[in-house]
Design a protein that fits this description.
- The protein is α+β, with helices and mostly antiparallel strands.
- The chain has 13 helices and 32 strands.
- The strands form nine sheets. Strands 12, 14, 15, 19, 20 and 21 form a six-stranded mixed β-sheet that branches.
- Helix 8 packs antiparallel against helix 13 and helix 11 packs antiparallel against helix 12.
C-alpha cells in the first residue's frame, strides 16, 4: 500500500517586519494567526486519517491467500496426521450475502503416503478497522487424512487449485514420520478425539434430531481451549447449538479423560445415504516434543504445585518452558446415515411437516358468552420435535363465526428448543345464539417411533351463547335510521345585537393572524401524524406474523436475486441452480413459513399443489429440478447463454409463484 508523507513547515512566531509591504500586511490582517493554526490542524487530520483511508479503499478490495500444513508435523509410523489446505478470502464491506465457495483441487499422490479426502469446512468472520473499514474474511478448509507405514521425510509438493474461477498455487508442506514406538504409548488420535452421539432408530428427512458432541481430552493435558464445532457437508441443516458445555470424567481402556459435552440438533435435508461429520479446532497445552507419556511432568518439575493451578495455566505455563499451546484440528469419524423419506400413504392434507411426539390441549376462555362478544380459545401443543414446522391450523367456522389470525408463542423446554410448548390464541366471535360448541381444531404430525401420521383434535368444546339485547337494539336503531324521513330543524333563538362598543384594546396584530402562524403549527401536526402512521405500521408488523414473514422473505429474496445475477454472469451453473431452489423456498415461505425454508423438491411440488398452482407452473418447476439433476449427476453444464435463458425462465416462474402465495 503506498504511503503518502507530507511535511509542513512550522509557522513563524517572530514579530512581523514593520517594513514589509502593504500587501503583506493586508494579507496578514485578512488571515489571522489563529486561523493559520486551525488550517494546519485541519490538513494534518485530513492527511493523516482521511487520505490513508481513501488510499486503502482505493486499493484491492479482495485478497485471497492459500496455505497448507500437516498437523501434527511429526508423527510415528502407522499413525494419522491431518493435511489441511486453507483458503482465506478477505473482501471489503459487509453485504450480508451468503458465501458459497466453489473449489476444485486434486492433491498429488506421494509414494508411501496414503492420502484420503475427508471433506470441506468453511467459516465467516467480520472485522472492522478505522483505516480499512469493514471486511469479511471467509475461510475454507480442504481436509485430508495422511498416514505412512514407513519412517522418513515426506513432502507434499506445490500444486494448483481452482477457486471461484481462478487458479492459485498451494505451497509445499513437510511431514516427518519417525520409527514406530514399541513401548507402551498412546496414539496421537487417542490424546484428543471427537465423538458424535446420535439416538438409535430410523431418521426421517425433515426430522429434527437431538445429538451430543463429545470432546475427549487425556487427563494428563493440563488445559485446553476448544472452539465451536463446524459441520462438514451440506446434507444436513445446522440446528441449535448449546452456548455452554458440561465437563465430566470417564475412562476409555486404561486411560482417564476429561469429557466436554455440547448438545446440538441436526435436520437432514435429503433422503438416502448421507455422510455426517463435525470438526473442531482445539488449543491444547502439550509438551514441545509431543510425547505426553514419556514421563510424568510433575515428577521432574519443581514447580508442579503451581503448574497444576489454573491461575498459572492462564499464563501459558511459563513456569514449565517444556510446555506450550498447540493448535490441533480434531474431527469425528464420518458417519453414514440412511435417511428415510416420509411415507406418502396416509398423509393428512393438513400435515405441515411437524415430526416428533406431541400432545394437544384446548382451553376456552369461558363457557358462556353473549352474542357478538369475543371469545379466546387457547391451543397448547407440548412435546418434542421440530416446533418450527408447526403452523397455526386453519379453522372451518362457516358463516356463524367471525375469526382473527391467532397469536403464536413458544416456550422452550431446553436450551436447544427441542422440547417445549407452542401456544396458539384464537379470537372468535359467535354471530348466532344457536351455537352450542366451539368447532374442533386439529393438528397432524408424523411420529418417527410408530412411523405413522397422527392427528390431534381439541374436541367439541361446549359453549352457551346468550342473547345480547344491546346488539339487537343497535340493529333496530340502524333499521330506524334507514327508514326515517326528514325532520324539521329545531328552531333556535338568536341573540340580540349589542349596539354599544366594548372595551378598547391595543391595535397590535394578533399572532395567530400572521401569515407564518398557520404553517408553523401545521408542520408539528404533520410530523406527529407521520410518526403515528409509521409507529402504527411497525406495531402492525410486530403483531402480524404473516406480514413480518413476508417482508423478511422479500428482503432475503432481493439479496438472493443479486447472487443469481452474479452466478449467471460468471457461468456458475451449480451455484445458479442452488440459489434458484432457495429462491423458490423463500417465496413459498411467505405463505407456509419455516415449513418451506427447508423443503425438498417433492415437498415444493406438494406446497404448490396446495396453492392450486396451474399445470404449466408445476411443469416449469419440474424442468428446474431436472436441469439441476442433469448437472449434478450427468455433468451437463450449460453455457452462459443457456444460463441467461434459464434465468429469464426462472424469473417468470418466480413471479408466477409469487402471485398465488
Amino acid at each position: 500500500m503506498p504511503v503518502l508523507t507530507f511535511q509542513i513547515s512550522p509557522l513563524s512566531l517572530r514579530r512581523p517586519d514593520p517594513k514589509q509591504s502593504r500587501d503583506h500586511r493586508a494579507q496578514a490582517t485578512a488571515f489571522p494567526r489563529y486561523c493559520q493554526y486551525l488550517f494546519l490542524l485541519f490538513f494534518t487530520f485530513h492527511f493523516q486519517f482521511i487520505i490513508p483511508s481513501a488510499s486503502a479503499q482505493s486499493g484491492s478490495d479482495t485478497e485471497v491467500t492459500v496455505t497448507s500444513e500437516f498437523s501434527p508435523a511429526t508423527i510415528r509410523a502407522g499413525r494419522d496426521a491431518r493435511y489441511t489446505v486453507t483458503i482465506t478470502h478477505s473482501t471489503a464491506g459487509n453485504s450480508g450475502i451468503t458465501f458459497r465457495p466453489q473449489v476444485n483441487a486434486i492433491a498429488p499422490s506421494i509414494p508411501g503416503l496414503e492420502l484420503s479426502y475427508i471433506g470441506q469446512s468453511s467459516s465467516t468472520q467480520t472485522t472492522f478497522s478505522n483505516v480499512s473499514g469493514t471486511r469479511r474474511i471467509f475461510t475454507i478448509r480442504l481436509n485430508f487424512q495422511a498416514r505412512a507405514e514407513n519412517p522418513g521425510n515426506y513432502t507434499m509438493p506445490s500444486f494448483s487449485l481452482t477457486y471461484e474461477g481462478r487458479d492459485y498455487i498451494v505451497p509445499p508442506s513437510d511431514l516427518v514420520v519417525l520409527q514406530a514406538d514399541t513401548t507402551q504409548q498412546l496414539d496421537q488420535d487417542k490424546i484428543l478425539f471427537l465423538e458424535l452421539l446420535l439416538p438409535e432408530g430410523k431418521i426421517f428427512v425433515g426430522q429434527t434430531v437431538k445429538a451430543t458432541l463429545q470432546l475427549f481430552a487425556l487427563d494428563r493435558i493440563p488445559n485446553i481451549r476448544n472452539n465451536y464445532p463446524v459441520k462438514v457437508g451440506d446434507a444436513f441443516a445446522e440446528g441449535a447449538l448449546a452456548d455452554s458445555q458440561t465437563r465430566s470424567r470417564g475412562r476409555r481402556g486404561n486411560y482417564s479423560y476429561n469429557i466436554y459435552s455440547r448438545p446440538l440438533t441436526i435436520t437432514p435435508l435429503k433422503s438416502g445415504r448421507q455422510n455426517l461429520m463435525y470438526e473442531m479446532e482445539v488449543q491444547a497445552l502439550l509438551p514441545l516434543d509431543g510425547d505426553v507419556f514419556s514421563a510424568d511432568p510433575n515428577s521432574q518439575d519443581p514447580f508442579s504445585t503451581f503448574s497444576n493451578d489454573p491461575f498459572f495455566q492462564r499464563f501459558n505455563f511459563q513456569l514449565n518452558p517444556q510446555m506450550q499451546y498447540q493448535n490441533i484440528l480434531v474431527s469425528t469419524d464420518p458417519i453414514e446415515l440412511d435417511i428415510q423419506p416420509l411415507p406418502s400413504e396416509g398423509r393428512p392434507e393438513e400435515f405441515s411437516g411437524a415430526i416428533g411426539e406431541f400432545s394437544l390441549k384446548a382451553f376456552p376462555g369461558t363457557n358462556t358468552i353473549k352474542e357478538g362478544d369475543p371469545l379466546t380459545v387457547r391451543i397448547q401443543l407440548a412435546g418434542q420435535g421440530n416446533f418450527d414446522r408447526i403452523v397455526p391450523p386453519d379453522l372451518d367456522l362457516g358463516d356463524t363465526w367471525k375469526s382473527y389470525d391467532p397469536t403464536v408463542d413458544f416456550k422452550q423446554g431446553d436450551a436447544l428448543g427441542f422440547t417445549g410448548i407452542k401456544t396458539f390464541d384464537y379470537t372468535l366471535i359467535p354471530l348466532d345464539e344457536t351455537i352450542t360448541f366451539v368447532p374442533e381444531i386439529s393438528i397432524s404430525y408424523f411420529d418417527p417411533k410408530t412411523e405413522s401420521y397422527q392427528t390431534l383434535t381439541s374436541g367439541q368444546l361446549p359453549l352457551t351463547v346468550l342473547n345480547n339485547p344491546s346488539l339487537d337494539a343497535a340493529q333496530n336503531r340502524a333499521v330506524t335510521d334507514t327508514d326515517s324521513t326528514d325532520v324539521e330543524p329545531e328552531q333556535r333563538e338568536f341573540f340580540e345585537i349589542n349596539l354599544q362598543p366594548g372595551r378598547l384594546v391595543s391595535g397590535l396584530r394578533p399572532v395567530y393572524l400572521e401569515p407564518w402562524f398557520l404553517p408553523s403549527q401545521t408542520i408539528p401536526l404533520l410530523a406527529l401524524f407521520g410518526f403515528f402512521l409509521v409507529r402504527r405500521h411497525q406495531i402492525k408488523i410486530e403483531k402480524d406474523e404473516t406480514l413480518r414473514r413476508r417482508k423478511e422473505a422479500d428482503r432475503r429474496l432481493n439479496l438472493l436475486l443479486a447472487e443469481i445475477g452474479e452466478s449467471t454472469r460468471e457461468g456458475n451453473a451449480s451455484s445458479f441452480y442452488q440459489q434458484a431452489h432457495n429462491g423458490i423456498r423463500l417465496v413459498l415461505s411467505k405463505r407456509f413459513g419455516p415449513r418451506a425454508e427447508a423443503a425438498t423438491a417433492d415437498e415444493m411440488d406438494q406446497l404448490l399443489e396446495e396453492c392450486q398452482a396451474p399445470p404449466e407452473l408445476l411443469e416449469g418447476l419440474k424442468q428446474l429440478h431436472e436441469a439441476d439433476e442433469a448437472l449434478n449427476f450427468a455433468g451437463n453444464a450449460p453455457s452462459t447463454l443457456d444460463l441467461l435463458e434459464s434465468r429469464k425462465a426462472f424469473e417468470s416462474l418466480l413471479a408466477a409463484i409469487n402471485k398465488i402465495v
